[in-house]
Amino acid sequence: NAEYISLRIGLRDAQEVLDKYRQAKTGTPVQEIQTKLKTIMDEHMWIIKTKKGLEEAKEKVQQLKEEFNNVALTDKSVIYNTELVQVYETTGMLDLAQAMIVAALAREESRGTHYRHDFKEQDNKNWLKHSIIKYHQDGPELLSENVKIGRLKPV
């Protein structure tokens, strides 16, 4: 299980984890993790998606979260350390990427900018609902809530 910073942990815990990255002697630059994540999302999470691509993205993001444990900073300072900010931001980006992929994999339909090449039709019967992500220590859980229909009916 990846030990990375998240908005889900307390401030004292976050400081300890940040110090771990700051004090590491060798490791992966945080910018490298960000670049890899951008590539994964560009390749698999743009408008046209497939189950195969989403499953590949899910696996790669999980691997990135594990690789993130080996991040080391070149800037060891505490004040005005933009690398430290990048570490904190990247943990949020990894969590968000994982949540987006889980939701996209589950939604077996096409709707708006979510186009599944393997499910080309909109499916109001099963998917006229909001996707809600609840995050746990072991990853995201997908929940849903029905859309409340007002005066305007879905097409």
The largest pleated sheet is described as: 2 strands, parallel
Cα-based radius of gyration, to the nearest Å: 18 Å
What coarse outline follows from CA principal-axis ratios?
A: elongated
- According to DSSP, the number of beta strands is 4
Element-level helix/strand string = HHEHHEHEE
The averaged pLDDT comes out at: 88
Q: How many H/I helical runs? A: 5
Strand order of the largest sheet: 1-2
| Percent strand | 5-15%
* Broad structural category: alpha+beta
How far apart are the first and last residues' alpha carbons, in Å?
A: 43 Å
Task: List segments where confidence is low: pLDDT < 50 over at least 5 consecutive residues.
Answer: none
Helix content: 40-55%
SSE topology sketch:
Blueprint: H1 11-23, H2 30-44, E1 48-49, H3 51-67, H4 82-106, E2 115-116, H5 124-127, E3 129-136, E4 139-146
Parallel strand pairs: 1-2
Antiparallel strand pairs: 3-4
Describe this structure in words.
It is a single chain. This protein is α+β, with helices and mostly antiparallel strands and 155 residues long. It is built from five helices and four strands. The protein has helices at residues 11-23, 30-44, 51-67, 82-106, 124-127, and strands at 48-49, 115-116, 129-136, 139-146. Strand 3 (129-136) and strand 4 (139-146) form a beta hairpin. The longest helix has 25 residues, at 82-106. The protein is elongated.
